[in-house]
Design goal:
alpha+beta, 9 helices, 15% strand
């Protein structure tokens, strides 16, 4: 059986797509980011909670502040990427549930009244949305360089607040010279999929 998505799109989104470590200096426009969001916002989350929040780091001053919190091996690429996004989980996502899940507005208080429950749900569902975001960046013909090598507490204090937990930092742009490492192996179908 074949996929409904044509082979070129499969290559763009998955087979030929790579994590980028270098980028050209071609800017990433607000229109491109809007198009990415307008696509990936339709990805499913539990209760349609949509807890992902994105901080775009565009100014030189903000970029310097962010680079200071990155692991040493991630500093140069973060400093030179055309656009950097901080992806975070909104732990107060439940406030939006009456709008986002209108057929069951009681979900806000019935399931998410307690902060630890919200934090767990936000982390899982925002991570799911982060994956959609990466695929959306690829769909825009751009490359993503997602990283978790940074001072999480420092990034939270510098760019977020106590209600938002940073998940990852993503460098975004057109891939530059020697942008990717050789592709690492993947597990085979029968190593992952089990039928019971």
């Amino acid at each position: 059986m074949t996929l409904a998505l044509d082979s070129a799109a499969q290559d763009l989104l998955f087979r030929e797509a790579r994590t980028a470590n270098t980028f050209t200096d071609e800017p990433v426009t607000e229109e491109q980011v809007q198009a990415i969001y307008d696509l990936v916002k339709f990805g499913p989350t539990a209760f349609n909670q949509s807890p992902l929040r994105v901080v775009l780091v565009r100014s030189d001053e903000a970029r310097e502040r962010l680079v200071s919190h990155m692991a040493e091996g991630n500093q140069a690429k973060t400093a030179s990427a055309p656009l950097v996004a901080i992806l975070a989980a909104d732990n107060e996502f439940h406030e939006e549930l009456p709008t986002l899940f209108p057929h069951f507005p009681q979900a806000k208080d019935m399931f998410f009244a307690e902060r630890p429950v919200r934090e767990q749900a936000a982390a899982l569902n925002a991570a799911l949305q982060a994956a959609y975001f990466i695929v959306g960046v690829r769909a825009a013909g751009l490359a993503a360089g997602p990283m978790t090598g940074f001072d999480f507490a420092g990034v939270q204090k510098e760019f977020l607040d106590d209600d938002h937990t940073p998940l990852m930092v993503i460098n975004i742009g057109k891939p530059g010279e020697d942008a990717s490492f050789p592709r690492s192996p993947r597990l085979a179908y029968d190593e992952v999929i089990t039928t019971v």
